[in-house]
Every structure is written in C-alpha cells, then in structure tokens.
Amino acid sequence: MAKRKRKERNEEFVPSRLATRPGQRLVEVHVEGYDDVAFWRGIFDEFESEQVIFEISVPPRPDLAKGKRVVMDMIPESGPGLLLCVDSDFDYLFSGSTPQSRRVLGAKYLFHTYAYATENYLCWAPALHTVCTKATKNDTRIFDFERFLAEYSRVIHPVFAWYAWSAQAGDEHIFKLIDFKNTVRLNYLEVRDNGAATLDWLRGNVQRRVHSLEHHYSQWVGEVNHFMKEVCTPDVTPENTYLFMHGHTLLDNVVIPMLNAVCEKLKQMASDRIQSSAQRGVAFSNEVSNYRNALVSVRDTLVYNELYKGCPLYRRLHDDIASVLRREGLITG
C-alpha cells in the first residue's frame, strides 16, 4: 500500500512541457547525446525571443537509441520545426569526398560543429588561462596555452594526416583510433619552458609512429600527402590540428593532464603566498581554509566554460544557424 501511494504521488508531479506564449513557436532540436545538450543550448539561447523558443533533446525513441547515426536517420523528417545537430567528426574535413560527408554537408536543416566535436571547443586554447584562473583563483600567467597547443598541433600533424586519411579511405585498420590516441596523448606535462620537454618527448613518439606507417604502407605515402593538400578542408593547418582531432582524446588525454599540471603549480604558488605571511593563529587558519574552499575541479570548470564562443569555427556555426532561422522567418535582422 505504501509503495502504491508513493508511486501515485510521484506520478502526480511528473512535469510536462510548458505551453508557449500566444504566437510563440516551439522548435525541437535533436542532438547526439546528453553531453551535447548544454553546448547546443548555449548556441540556441542566443536566438530565443518572443517569436521562437527551442527545446534541445536527444531523439525521443522508445529504444532509447542515440548517437550521430540516429540523428542523421532523421534528416528526411527535419524542417523548420525540427532541427538536427551533430559533431562533424571528419565529415567537414572530408569536404564531401565520402557519402556520409556529402549527407552531412548537404542536409538543409542539420548543423555540424566544424571542429571534430563539441569537446574540441571546450579545449580552445585562448580560453584555457581563464579556466585555470577560475579553478585555482590564481590569475598568474605561468603557461602560454596558445603557443603550446599550436606547437602540439605542428608536432602531431603528420600522424593526424595518416589517421584522417585512413578514415577517409575506409581503411581504419591501417591506423586505429587506439593507436592514434597512444601516439598523441600526453602522459605528463613539464610546465617549465612552456612544456618544451614534453613536446620533445611527443615529437619522438610521433616520428617513430610515422616512420612505422611509412615503412609498412609505403604505397600509400603519396595518397596521404595528396589527401592533406587536395581533399582535406583548407581550414586545417599545422597550427590548429587539435581542433580537428578526436575530441575525447584531446580532452581526456591532452588538455585535462595539461590543465592539471598547470593548476597544481598555480595552487602551490597561492599556498606559498599564504604561508609566507607573518600572520598566524585563527586568521591564518581561516585564510588557508577559505582558499581551499574556493578551489574548483579543473574538469568541471573546463566543461562549463563557454569562452570558446570566440573561436572562428564557432562563429561560422553560429552564422549557419542564424542564416537558416532567418530564411525560415524564425528570427529577423
């Protein structure tokens, strides 16, 4: 009896979709997964008005299936009232050279990230100093993230070319994702000299992998070079390769370790300043406690930052959405 009453009480408070205002249009936006809802919400927030609101969700299927393929299967159903949003993966980079790339680039009501995935935007280099400041409450600039990630991109560019080419050619077994990840990941970051020692270690790792690939697949070396020059979108440069590499590899195996290393140094610096104070007793203990309580998880700070909105690729995505909404009369101006 108690279980039945508890069940009935819970059912009474199941929320339903709020009604829109008179004359206000509700547009559904379907995304790949739950992790993507916040990113796309941040874009569509900018377009909401008295005339239109957006509801961001994963596809409402009885089998709970989600992912890019599920969203793309909805292309025939899409229209002004149903917009679709996906990670580009390599589909933008491939410039229509594969069937899926042509579908993604040609769909009228489907938007793609341009960068490999939403995770790549979170890792946009100009935002990372602010992420560290928010996490550590220390604004001292001890590391140049833009310079480091530009050099990191230059280092991994040759091996990125092999991985992207093998995916475009449909021969991913030539260079599997796990092998790419193991080649480009950072196991540590030496903060001194802006990570020069770490980059030297990575450079050797990449050179060994490229040498192995060229040795075992010498017949494809010319194809790889042609792919990067003629097929791959010109937006990919040696300095911004990180925006087009596998998103979770970049986030989990490169940027998070990098941020953790820098933030540990910043926290130590802040603690040393407190320790150097002549003040002791209750005031000193309170200062130490207040600083520790102010610290925030690096991962949480990174995931919830939206400073990537200054990224040129993001601005292009924003402009794509604005163009379609304007064309359909959902926004003006």
How would you describe what is shown here?
With 333 residues, the chain is an alpha/beta fold. The chain has a four-stranded parallel sheet. The protein is 53% helix and 6% strand. It has helices at 2-12, 34-44, 68-72, 99-106, 118-122, 128-136, 145-168, 177-184, 196-216, 221-231, 247-275, 282-294, 298-303, 312-327; strands at residues 25-30, 52-57, 82-86, 110-112. Residues 1-16 have low confidence and may be disordered.
Q: What's the arrangement of strands in the largest beta sheet?
A: 2-1-3-4
Provide a count of the helices: 14
Q: What amount of the residues lies in strands?
A: 5-15%
Sheet with the most strands, sense and barrel status: 4 strands, parallel
Shape: flat
Q: What is the terminal separation in angstroms?
A: 59 Å
Count of the domains: 2
SSE succession = HEHEHEHEHHHHHHHHHH
Number of strands: 4
Q: Could you tell me the radius of gyration in angstroms?
A: 24 Å
**What structural class do the secondary elements suggest?**
alpha/beta
Helix content: 40-55%
Mean pLDDT: 89
Stretches where pLDDT is under 50 for at least 5 consecutive residues are 1-16
Quick take:
The protein has 333 residues and is an alpha/beta fold.
Give the SSE layout.
Blueprint: H1 2-12, E1 25-30, H2 34-44, E2 52-57, H3 68-72, E3 82-86, H4 99-106, E4 110-112, H5 118-122, H6 128-136, H7 145-168, H8 177-184, H9 196-216, H10 221-231, H11 247-275, H12 282-294, H13 298-303, H14 312-327
Parallel strand pairs: 1-2, 1-3, 3-4
Helix pairs in contact: 6-11, 7-8, 7-9, 7-10, 11-12
